[in-house]
Design a protein that fits this description.
By secondary structure, the protein is of the alpha/beta class. Helix content is 39%, strand content 11%. The protein has one domain (3-306): Glycoside hydrolase/deacetylase (TIM Barrel), CATH 3.20.20. The longest helix is centred in the N-terminal third of the chain and has 21 residues, at 24-44. The protein starts with a strand and ends with a helix. Bound molecules: zinc ion (2 copies). One zinc ion (ZN) is lined by residues 9, 11, 15, 109, 113, 150.
Length: 307
């Protein structure tokens, strides 16, 4: 009996810190999606791992962010219709997740989302980011044990272990973080035909004692193509791929690990996609005993089995 895992990279404006200015249209909508997703997860009683950018845990910030690639005092920047407090701070959204009916896992996604291979990143910066994540979470009463690397750049795992994390979302076997980008070009050119099934993964304890819970499928990877060719949800190629992965996990001992950003959900078709996928997870839980786990649940189970 395998399991399904869903992780979310929840970052608000930090996910766009490298843009000249935060994308108003995306972010205006993104805040509302957090609650919308929580209601959907509640409806199907499916807990998820919310990897939240640490700065969103703060109520206020006096850090000048000197030398930050987004610019000094970046967290005071507003857009035409969004104040800084709605862009760079959770302003109630973290509580929305923590107080949902289902017991979501609160995980970490960097402190300011600078990825760990960024030209301005080094060991000192990475350690500061991790320490700030832990401090901000602790001040809110959270003790995150799972980590999702910003932009999926898996680096400084030793520091992750040093800062008390015990699991992360890695890449499927044989796939580097640059692999999917190359394939993306092929995929767009070929119109997503003949893609291999997304992998059911086998989490394992790595050389730093961390549990790697590899990703199986990004639920909004080829949305440009999908949006243009989709009519009904039954023809949604992402739903078909997710269903195939969920079914494969239900018949195996592995994990099918799906992920998304809240800001990926931009309209009714995106909600319909998630609704179909969550509904199928719930159906396989009933029919096959498929487990629904958070990354932290998987880590605990894998670690216990490896002892
Ligand atoms: Zn700040
Ligand atoms: Zn991110």
């Amino acid at each position: 009996m395998g399991s399904a895992v869903i992780s979310l990279d929840a970052e608000l404006a930090w996910g766009f810190h490298h843009y000249p200015e935060p994308p108003n249209d995306v972010l205006r909508h993104a805040r509302g999606v957090w609650g919308q997703l929580c209601r959907l997860f509640d409806e199907y009683e499916i807990p998820a791992t919310w990897a939240i950018t640490g700065h969103l845990m703060l109520d206020a910030c006096r850090d000048p962010h000197r030398g930050h690639p987004a610019g000094e005092r970046c967290c005071t920047t507003a857009t035409d219709d969004l104040p800084a407090g709605k862009l760079w701070f959770g302003d109630g959204l973290v509580d929305t997740v923590a107080s949902a009916d289902v017991d979501h896992e609160i995980a970490s996604h960097g402190f300011t989302h600078v990825h760990f291979e960024h030209e301005s990143m080094d060991r000192g910066f990475a350690a500061d980011e991790l320490a700030a994540c832990v401090e901000a979470a602790d001040a809110r009463g959270f003790d995150p044990s799972s980590f999702v690397f910003p932009v999926n750049r898996v680096e400084y795992r030793d520091l992750l272990a040093d800062h008390g994390f015990d699991c992360y979302r890695g890449h499927p076997a044989g796939e580097s973080d640059r692999g999917p980008i190359r394939r993306r070009a092929t995929k767009l050119a070929s119109g997503i035909v003949g893609r291999p099934a997304p992998p059911v993964v086998t989490p394992h304890v790595d050389e730093y004692g961390l549990v790697d819970v590899p990703a199986s499928l990004y639920l909004f990877d080829f949305q440009g193509v999908a949006r243009s060719i989709l009519g009904r949800v039954t023809t949604d190629p992402v739903v078909r791929r997710a269903v195939a992965g969920i079914d494969a996990a239900a018949r195996s001992e592995g994990v099918f690990h799906m992920w998304l950003h809240p800001h990926d959900v931009r309209g009714p078709r995106d909600v319909a996609r998630l609704d179909s996928i969550l509904s199928h997870v719930a159906a396989r839980r009933r029919s096959h005993g498929l487990r629904v786990e958070t990354m932290g649940d998987v880590a605990d189970r894998v670690r216990a089995a490896s002892r």
